[in-house]
Amino acid sequence: MQNKHTLVLAIAAVVALGIGGLTWTGSSARQVANTAEHGSSDEHGHESKATAHSEEQGDDAHGEADAEEGRLTLSADQIKAAGVLLETAAPRELASVVRFPGEIRFDEDRTAHVVPRVSGVVESVQANLGEAVRKGQVLAVIASQQISDLRSEQQAAQRRLELARVTFDREKQLWQDRISAEQDYLQARQALQEAEISLANARQKVSAIGTAVNALGGNRYELRAPFDAVVVEKHLTVGEVVSEATNAFILSDLSQVWATFAVPPNDLGKVVTGRAVKVSSPDMKAEVDGKVGYVGSLLGEQNRAATVRITLTNPNGAWRPGLFVDIAVTSARDEVAVAVPETAVQTVEDRPSVFVRSPDGFDTRPVTLGRREGGYVEVLKGLESGDQVATDGSFTLKSELGKASAEHSH
């Protein structure tokens, strides 16, 4: 029995040793396989450094990979086929710009408060709010007793003049024939002169009301537009009683408007008459060039700033009074160290960047921008004078960079 028991223990020991050997052999085989796999990766330039180095070294390798993402490998033929043009970053004279918030207003030189020149009752209104009217167009018709009185006065003066002239001619003849005394002749001549003065006075009163009264006759008065304009306010209706002080209409020629803004005393030296400005509206995505036409001599009581005015042409009526605008005033001109065309700047990963020509293509460089003028922009950081950058076609390079980044992430 003891011999059998001893034999069983011996067999169990041999089996255990065999299993342990198999386990070690499998582990060793896996290590060899992993080593071979990583060795293969090294041959292809993929991830070997991340496996062989510590976590910190792996982060450094990831940074180098990110740097590679900003590069585009393109041949000269590919660059030409893409329509990419190059320009050398260089010093350039640019003007500094000072910006102010402003507002579009009516051109007061082309805005009229139309009032009736006589009192009366409105018979008809022929112009509506917002309507474009032409010079001489009838806006409203007013029936006025005052016109009737003035016309009666003129007619009476005309009759008195005719009678005074007949009397004068008769007395003159009688005096020349020595039938009447010279005193009668002189009195007739004085009466004629007074009648002429009275008629001239009556005619001036009628003509002061306007030519519309002369054309109409009777007691009708036509309120007419003084120039081509738009009706921006209307304050009368049919049947309303009006007087010479009634502000019936406000007309404004919107083909020309003012852009006004306030300038504090410390910036007045930068804003002078004749200086070039750019007026822009972020909401309308529009921009127009202009010049400072007027700088106020007094400071406002509320804001302690001088009012500055710019006259803008407004052919399509896009610049509407009341619109808030941004006004950029060009001040002194200085030479900047590095400037490139604005077309060279693209937004890459939410940062302004340029594509710099390299021996094998282009490198993407984030830049810090400064002043802008005439299609050029100052580069404060990220670029040196003499670097060649892509101008026309830079957006194509941005698109290719985005495709490359997407493929790299996958």
From TrEMBL:
Q: Which portions of the chain have biased composition (kind: Basic and acidic residues)?
A: 39-68
- What region holds the CzcB-like alpha-helical hairpin domain? 149-208
Q: Which GO terms describe its molecular function?
A: peroxidase activity; transition metal ion binding; transmembrane transporter activity
**Which parts of the sequence belong to the CusB-like beta-barrel domain?**
256-332
Question: What sequence ranges are listed for the domain CzcB-like barrel-sandwich hybrid?
Answer: 110-253
Q: Name any one Pfam family assigned in the record.
A: CzcB_C
Q: What cellular-component terms does GO give this entry?
A: membrane; outer membrane-bounded periplasmic space
InterPro entries xref list: Beta-barrel_RND_2 (IPR058792), BSH_CzcB-like (IPR058647), CzcB_C (IPR058649), HH_CzcB-like (IPR058648), MFP_Cation_Efflux (IPR051909), RND_pump_MFP (IPR006143)
- Coiled-coil annotation: which residues? 147-205
Q: Which GO terms describe its biological process?
A: copper ion export; plasma membrane copper ion transport; response to cadmium ion
**Domain CzcB-like C-terminal circularly permuted SH3-like, which positions?**
338-398
Its domain of life? Bacteria
Q: Where is this region: Disordered?
A: 33-68
Cite the SUPFAM superfamilies for this sequence. Answer: HlyD-like secretion proteins (SSF111369)
Q: Which UniProt keywords apply?
A: Cadmium resistance, Coiled coil, Oxidoreductase, Peroxidase, Transport, Zinc
Looking up NCBIfam families in the UniProt record yields: RND_mfp
The entry sums up its family as follows: Belongs to the membrane fusion protein (MFP) (TC 8.A.1) family.
According to its UniProt entry, the function of this protein is described as:
CzcA and CzcB together would act in zinc efflux nearly as effectively as the complete czc efflux system (CzcABC). The CzcB protein is thought to funnel zinc cations to the CzcA transport protein.
In its UniProt entry, what is this protein called?
Cytochrome C peroxidase
Report the source organism.
Answer: Pseudomonas cremoricolorata
